[in-house]
Amino acid sequence: MAMAWDFETEPDFQRKLDWANDFVRSEIEPLDLVLGDPYNKGDEQAMRIVRPLQQQVKDAKLWACHLEPELGGEGYGQVKLALLNEILGRSRWAPSVFGCQAPDSGNAEILARYGTPEQKERYLASLLAGEISSCYSMTEPHAGSDPGLFTTQAVRDGDEWVIRGEKWFSSNARYASFYIVMAVTDAERGTRGGMSMFIVPADAPGLRIIRNVGLGTESDDTGSHAYVSYDQVRVPADHLLGKEGAAFEIAQARLGGGRIHHAMRTIAQVRRALDMMLERAVSRQVRAGSLASQQLTQQAIADSWLQVEQFRLLVLRTAWLIDKHQDYQFVRKDIAAVKAAMPVVYYDVVRRAMHLHGSLGISNEMPFSSMLVSAEAVALADGPTEVHQMTLAKQLLRNVKPADGLWPSEHLPTRRLAAQQHLAQRLEHEAADI
Ligand SMILES: Cc1cc2nc3c(=O)[nH]c(=O)nc-3n(C[C@H](O)[C@H](O)[C@H](O)COP(=O)(O)OP(=O)(O)OC[C@H]3O[C@@H](n4cnc5c(N)ncnc54)[C@H](O)[C@@H]3O)c2cc1C
C-alpha cells in the first residue's frame, strides 16, 4: 500500500548524503579555517586545492544539484536538495565545492530561464562550471525593502543601454566577472513593467566599487558587500536580460529559490549550534554536577530542539510543495513563512548555545558571534522579516470572508441556537418516543 506521508530518504540517495556528510566534515571544513574567500576564483592556491574536490563531487553525482540535467545538474528536486543543503550549510566552502553557492545559483537560474543563447554561452557556461563568480546588484543605499523607491536608471541610446546610479550591498562584487543589475527603464510604470534587468561585465567603464562593506566586525579588507557606482555605464542592447520591464518578475523567480535554499543551509547552522550546546552541557561542571543536570539548561536544550525540528519540517514541506507544483509563485505563502521563521530559530538557538559557553562563547575563539550576525543577515537578505510576514498574512487573509452579522462565526450562544434549530425535529422525535 502506498504511504500518504513518508519521512524516509531513498536508500540510494541516503548513501549519497552519508558520503557528502563525511566528505564535508573531513575534506571541506578544514578549508574554512585556512583558505580565503570561496568566491575569489583568482586565488590560484585555493583553486588548486578545490578543483580536485569539485571533481570528486561531480563523480559522486552531487554537483550543482539545484539545476536540471540539461544545465549540468542532477535534477533531484528541492526535497533532496534540502537534505543535501542541510549538510553543506555547515561549511563556508561547501556550497562552492558542490557548485550550488548563492548568489551564483540564483543568477544561473535566471540566466538559464530568461537568457538568450548568446548570453548563456558567454556568461552561464563558465558560471555553471564554477570558473567565475557573479553578483546580483539590486539594493540601493537609500532603499532596499521597497523596490518602488529604486532610482538607478537605464536609458536606451542607439544600440546601447546607459546605466546610472548607485547600488548597495552587492555581495561578492569584488570577485564577480559580471553583475546582474536592476534598473528603472520607465519611471511612469513603477515596479511592474517599469524596471529591467541587465548583465553588466565587471570591467565595463564607469562601474566602480566605492568600498567593500563587511558584516559585523569583519575588517575593511575582507568585506565583500559592495557599495557600487554605475556612472554612465554602457552595455550593448543585447545585454538586457529577459524582456524590457520584466525585472520584478525575474527578481521574484530568483529570490523564491534563493530564500528556500538559504533556509536549507540555515538548518545546518542551527543543528551545529545545538550540537555545541549539547557537548558543552555534558562537559562543563558546576558544583551541583554537569550543566546538563540543571533543569534550566535542559529547558534551553529542549526548546532549541523543538524549534530546529519545527523549522526543518516547514522547510522540507515547502521544498516538497515546490517539487509538486513547480511554481514559486504558487508557494509564495510557504516561502514567506520559512523566510520569517528562519532568523528567529537561528538567533534563539545560537544565542542559547553562546550563553551556555559563558565567556568562551562570546570570545573570538568560538564561532557564535559570527553566527549571530548571520542570524540577523538572514533576517534582511532577500527582504526583511516584516515584508515576508506581510506576504504571509495577506495570502492567509485573501479568501477570508467577514462574519455574517454582529457576532464571530464561532460565537457560542449563536452557534448553540443554530444547533438547537438544526436538531429541533430530531429532538422532538426523541421526546415523543420516550
Ligand atoms: C548579508 C546580506 C547580503 C545581501 N546581498 C545582497 C546582494 O547580493 N544584492 C542586493 O541587491 N542586495 C543584497 N542585500 C541587501 C538586502 O536585500 C536588503 O538589506 C534588504 O532588502 C533590506 O533593505 P535595507 O537593508 O535597505 O533595509 P530597509 O529597507 O531600510 O529596511 C530596514 C528595516 O525597516 C523595516 N521595514 C522595511 N520595510 C518595512 C515594511 N514594509 N513594513 C514594516 N517594516 C519595514 C524592517 O525592520 C527592516 O529591517 C544583502 C543584505 C545582507 C544583510
TrEMBL record:
It comes from the Bacteria. GO terms for biological process: fatty acid beta-oxidation using acyl-CoA dehydrogenase. Residues 248-397 form the Acyl-CoA dehydrogenase/oxidase C-terminal domain. Residues 135-222 form the Acyl-CoA oxidase/dehydrogenase middle domain. The keyword Protease does not apply. It catalyses: a 2,3-saturated acyl-CoA + A = a 2,3-dehydroacyl-CoA + AH2. Belongs to the acyl-CoA dehydrogenase family. Homodimer. This is (R)-benzylsuccinyl-CoA dehydrogenase. It comes from Nocardia aurantia. The lineage of its organism: Bacteria, Bacillati, Actinomycetota, Actinomycetes, Mycobacteriales. The gene is bbsG_4.
